[in-house]
Design brief:
The complex is a heterotrimer.
Chain A (H helix, E strand, L loop, with lengths): L2 H23 L20 E6 L20 H4 L4 E3 L5 E3 L2 E6 L4 E6 L13 H12 L8 H4 L2 E8 L2 E6 L6 H4 L24 E7 L3 E6 L12 E6 L3 H10 L4 E2 L4 H7 L5 E4 L6 E3 L1 E2 L10 H9 L3 H8 L4 E3 L24 H10 L7 E7 L4 H16 L3 E7 L1 H8 L9 E2 L3 E3 L23 H12 L3 H18 L2 E2 L2 E3 L3 E4 L2 E2 L2 E2 L5 E2 L4 E2 L2
Parallel strand pairs in A: 1-10, 1-11, 16-17, 16-18
Antiparallel strand pairs in A: 2-3, 4-5, 5-7, 6-7, 8-9, 9-10, 11-22, 12-22, 13-19, 14-20, 15-21, 23-26, 24-25
Chain B lengths: L1 H28 L4 H6 L7 H10 L6 H13 L13 H36 L4 H15 L2 H15 L15 H36 L1 H8 L4 H39 L4 H11 L2 H29 L1 H4 L6
Chain C lengths: L21 H19 L1 H4 L30 H37 L1 H15 L3 H12 L3 H28 L2 H8 L4 H12 L1 H24 L11 H10 L6 H25 L10
The chains are: A alpha+beta, B mainly alpha, C mainly alpha.
Amino acid sequence: MLRRGSWLSGIVIASVLSVAGCAAAESPTETDGAGGGDPATQAGGSLTVAAAQGLQQLNPAIRTFAWEEALFPLLWNGLTTMSESGEVVSDLAESWSTDDAGVWTFKLRSGVTFSNGDPFTADDVVATFEYYLDENTATQERNKIAMISSVVAVDDTTVQFTLDQPVATFPAGIVWVRMLHVDSLDQIDSDPIGTGPFVVSSFTPDDTLTLVANENYFGEAPGYDTIEIVKAADSTSAVTALRSGDIDLLWAVPQGDVALFEGDDSITLVRPANPSQWPSWEVDTESAPFNDVRARQALAYAIDRQTILEAAYYGQGFVSPTNNALSEGNAWFGGDLIDYSYDLDKAKALFAEAGITEGSTLTWWGVAGQFPEWNTSGEILQASLKEIGINLVIDNNDIGTWVEAFYPAGKSYPGYIVPNFQSTPAEPAYSLNFYLNGRCECNWDNSEFEQAFADAVAETGATERADRWATVQEIINREVPLIVPLQSTVVTATSSDVTGVWSEGGGQLRLENARPKG
Amino acid sequence: MLLFVARRVAISIGMLIATSLLIFAALRLLPGDPIITRLGATPGIDSDTIQRLREEAGLEAPVLEQYFRWMSGIATGDFGQSFFNQFSVTELIVMRLPATLQLTFTGIVIATLIAVPAGVWASLKPLGVVDRIITALSTASIAIPQFIVGIVLILIFAVQLQWLPARGYVPITESLSENLIRMILPALTLGIASAPLLLRYLRATMIEVLAAPYIRTAVGKGQSSSGVLLKHALRNALIPTLTMLGLIVGYSLGGVVIIEYVFGIPGVGSLAIEAVFKRDYAVLQSVVLLVAALFLLVSLIVDLLYGVLDPRLRAGQKRG
Amino acid sequence: MAKKPPANTSHSTAPLGHVRVRWAETISLTVLGILVIGSVLAPILAPYDPTAQSMNRFADPSPEHLFGTDELGRDLFSRIMYGGQLTMSIAAGATILAMVLGIAWGMMAAFLRGFADEVLMRLADSIMAVPQILLALVFISALGADPATLAFVIGILLTPTTARLVRSSVLAELEEDYFLAAIAFGAPRYRLLLFELLPNVRGPLTVQTALNAANAILLEASLSFVGLGIAAPEATWGSLVQQGYQKIYQSVTYMLYPALLIFIVIWLLNVLADQLGGANDIQGKKQ
């Protein structure tokens, strides 16, 4: 048929592909702002925010996808909230006090209304907490509020909590409990009612959420009239959209692309002051071979943390040589800890003692298609283990299959190493609580730890508490219930015309003070 | 005639049921379920709560019962509810249908705009230079996977030239210009992918028609070639091309899924892909069924049109 | 065995005077052959171990690394060679499965006729009515993404189209004189199938084989792009395109060469199919 023509066009197509490829290499440094997008820089204008995940639903109590936390300060308020410096400050509660015996009294602001005009009173606080505490509500906050034995509205602006035991950090523990309009919960996805600075004007799940300023907001009007939250699933088009001005903010920039923005004046990088997101590689401590502490310690020595930080996380973070979930910059970091820096000889010896000899096989149980840093970490570990004769099989599956194998706590997955990550605040009560039995999928059952943890939480004096937390860290460090190779920094990139954006330690985005610059 | 129609409709319904069984069974094969995927390794939820949530969602009922509940729901227009939010499947599909329809329609229009002139031009002088180039290009564009076409277009027009946005969708109701600008690259991708099929078939048919004696007579009689072309040849060539329409629509519906994924378009296709990952059974089952129904509907219409056009078929004779 | 008179390469229906020009076929086969042999011999020919990591990340193409390196400092040229091996074996496995199942299915339908034929073909249509990528996604999610499973799932997806083709080709032959004669001679069914029919439909079958192979590579690449391809550290061309696209700002060759190779192989297979099948290539391909 058409032979010469076929070849010719094949070459043409190939050239086109090459041009396209070479095109991407010379990334332009100027941003033309082409391709549309709303003007983001006028006062009271519109802010377009993008993340790789979409928002599935809007109920803050049953939030399961981390990105939903960006809505927490926009649509809702808690009694307390976290400030940029990491302190607990007032939100809907003006002040609070405790009798140190487990009773906390909160004094609420007056004159606050929900977005539909209904007044916000202590009854709403009670109703909200009862909803959160209800066993049918699948909420993450459960263990932070489980010690509440009763919550009572003393009067319209006073709420009293009675706890099973004194907990010094209670106000910090409830920052994520958002005050809800409990009567309208069954329409929360289509018409959410909250007290926050924004309300929802339209919602296409897993794609776009449009927020507009709440006229009935009790506080200062937000810096933008509209916030549009969109899903930008693939990193290349997300980065492209940011550079062209199509979007104003990209949350959780893929680590490999952060370097693109360094030195670009039109983009500002926002990082947490104290990074507290940590990869948590879990093993089953109840089944062989990782029921043997020597196997776990061996694994800790076999992790080339520095290479993983550089190659998988592109240097965005800090290694944790003591395998500690708390970063070395954390005020509560302490204890006499073993240093697990990369040492294959020690790893090999300990593995052998635990019965993992040359030729043994372990499995890296990861997620396909997402979290490239996990994949790269796994490949680095695979290469390390290969050097000491251990075969690591990398088995990536989609999220549903991945989760099914090890979650919830109590499942048996012998020989698996499961990458995951935790985004926690700096307070050890709410980060080290991950290790508690029944909570951690590592199935770690250590009474010494449980006791030490309870002691630390109950301790009211600050220096004594520091000592107790040091003890807790020593136990964790010695027993290695899971691997923490490093703390990672969640980087958010914004247009330099946007200011007032900050993120919490775990990367949670705080947009309520965002406003156009100048 | 009525018998023919009734028979074809009955067969189509049978096929739809077969497809529904297929997708239902396949989904139940998958490890994990929507509850566990939704909770996504949320610490602090114990297995009792998960069990309870499963029961609430109806996932603990026997499989057959779940199937019948789904099917009877469909009969009353209730396609179920997403496991991930409070929206019904119907609401989700309605939210996303405009984007898919616009993409498919624009894509087919672009495909036609490419294929018809090119196919006719190529057929004028078979094996001539123009014909060779056009056929070669069409072979080449079948060869590039659609998603590669998509990402190449993104790399050229969005990353390098920055003429067009890389992703996103704005409803027509919000802004016509934004909507069209963002539709260009995805629709172009779909058009480039679907055009070759149409082109080849049209070209082959045109060549056949042009070789017919009555055409040559008309030309010989002095009628201008373009007049002849338009009046007789094209009309006769387009009718058989109708059968391709069924195939093209099916091809486009399938292609739309991956194109929506590449360009981040909130259509029914990306809804389906996400539903697989989330194990959102209700959504995926109904969406797949909808797409299959659409495809079968188009095939049915084409078949019926053929039946109208060709009386022999109505008698129920077997076609080879 | 009665040989059917040689087909006249459908001159009457393809008036463009299609003539099978040897050299296009030859060159396609040659280039494909080179790629296949190169992939098969990857363990011998590849300059590096495809899983050997180094500190030299995202290196530009150089004499040491013809296509540069990836995010872990692995040589891309070697990874692409091994990737070709995996891509082609998956495609081959899928094609073989599709041909075997498709021939059985299509022949059964053609032979049995009537209601059985109708049911079998409608079954095929029902499967074809679902977008292939979705079915593939569901099955791969269920069964895992190792090479054997991928080949199996893709093969199953290609079977209905193959069955349809086989059926229509066989049906045409059933009316031919040589076949009727063979029946009159009392030849048993299987002999009819294997020795009378099959050889005489090998034209369309060969074309379908080429098209199936092309489609298999395409499907595998699409699955990889969506994230359900082969897991690390193995790679196929499809998974390399997916990885490369995510890292396009760091390296161009990462995505470029695997994508080019995918295109070239599919294109050559289509050219072959065109050559072998004449101008009447009206089998639609579904993505």
